[in-house]
Design a protein that fits this description.
With about 325 residues, the protein is α/β, with parallel strands linked by helices. It folds into 2 domains: about 230 residues, Alpha-Beta Barrel (TIM Barrel); about 40 residues. Helix content is about 50%, strand content about 15%. Strand 6, helix 6 and strand 7 form a beta-alpha-beta unit. Bound molecules: erythose-4-phosphate.
């Protein structure tokens, strides 16, 4: 069935997989949140699969570069991708490397034809593949449309706004990937915070705190001025700056970006699945699950981040210490 155009969800989707998944979508208890691993490292993928928690994999050229470098640069890439597909129990996203419509279509067909016999190949296409905001602006969308009409599943990547997500879904993307962590990075950059100095990549971005700071900033500007009418307040440059500094065109965080897309897709029954991407910590995963996103794709370290809690470690230490001899004997017979 072609995925072209804005198709409607006709009946509730049901996951056939078992494993650690979360109920989502409030009204539709049959949908489960899936977890993809955001890596091209076969060791990480195999380990996570053996723990039974992974439903798919997302890669990109930067992740493939890391995997290649980890292996000293020598890698038979085709064989390596075959292995990734063979061990992964669900979709594996592979990205094209060009930015023009013709080349992206060609590369997508090549990847799909070459690897589909090893697993579920999904082709990652940038929602907008322009390198300068002028050329190739529509090539991503046109490529998505073309591939969808050929039944090649597409993951629209580098989605940074709800508007881009709407266009990707309308073009027929099977998956849409909003990059939550990169939006949080951008919002911190906007107020002069430097990654590595003021915050680390894996730090949670507290957008609730930022909301409060924004409203305090606006109050501060207002109290320093004598603006009498709502019109003067609305048009005042300093007020406007204070009101726009902590958000990206109304998006206050990566989590809020995903929340907006989930709401819009639900409003209209868009069939594209949303992959919350660029996830940096466990708390983001929790918040994405609360929103009811279809899928989160997480780096390997976030899996551990989701599992470790100091009180669990304290508890297991106490239990291990408290094992009394008569109880131990049961296990030594
Ligand atoms: C998604 O598919 C991307 O591979 C990924 O989530 C990007 O994450 P990053 O912003 O941490 O590089």
């Amino acid at each position: 069935m072609s995925r072209c155009g804005a198709t409607l969800r006709s009946k509730p989707r049901r996951s056939k997989r078992i494993g650690i998944e979360f109920l989502n979508r409030g009204e539709d208890k049959t949908s489960l949140m899936k977890i993809f691993l955001d890596t091209a490292d076969i060791d990480e993928i195999s380990f996570a699969v053996s723990a039974g928690v992974i439903d798919g994999v997302t890669t990109n050229p930067s992740l493939i570069k890391q995997a290649v470098e980890k292996r000293g640069g020598s890698i038979d890439m085709e064989e390596y991708i075959e292995k990734i597909l063979s061990v992964t129990p669900g979709p594996v996203s592979l990205e094209v490397i060009s930015v023009s419509y013709e080349k992206m279509v060609e590369e997508a067909r090549l990847l799909h034809n070459r690897f589909r016999r090893y697993g579920q190949v999904v082709i990652k296409i940038p929602v907008c593949s322009s390198l300068n905001g002028v050329d190739n602006v529509y090539d991503g969308l046109r490529t998505i449309r073309r591939l969808a009409s050929e039944d090649i599943p597409v993951n629209a990547t580098l989605v940074m706004s709800p508007e881009q997500a709407i266009l990707a879904a309308k073009a027929g993307a099977s998956y849409v990937s909003p990059f939550a962590g990169r939006i949080d990075d951008y919002l911190r950059d906007k107020i002069g915070m430097k990654r590595g100095k003021d915050y680390q990549k894996s730090d949670y971005y507290d957008f609730n705190l930022m909301w409060r700071i924004e409203s305090l900033n606006i109050d501060r500007v207002l109290s320093s001025k004598n603006l009498s009418s709502p019109k003067d307040v609305y048009l005042d440059n300093e007020v406007r700056e204070a009101a726009s500094k902590l958000n990206d065109n109304g998006v206050y965080s990566g989590v809020e970006l995903v929340r907006s897309i989930v709401t819009i897709f639900r409003n209209y029954g868009f069939k594209s699945q949303i992959i919350a991407s660029s996830i940096r910590n466990a708390r983001q995963v929790r918040e994405m699950a609360e929103i009811g996103v279809d899928i989160v794709t997480i780096p390997f370290y976030v899996l551990k981040d989701m599992l470790i809690h100091h009180k669990t470690i304290e508890g297991i230490n106490d239990f291990v210490k408290d094992v009394v001899e008569p109880y131990r004997k049961i296990f030594t017979k």
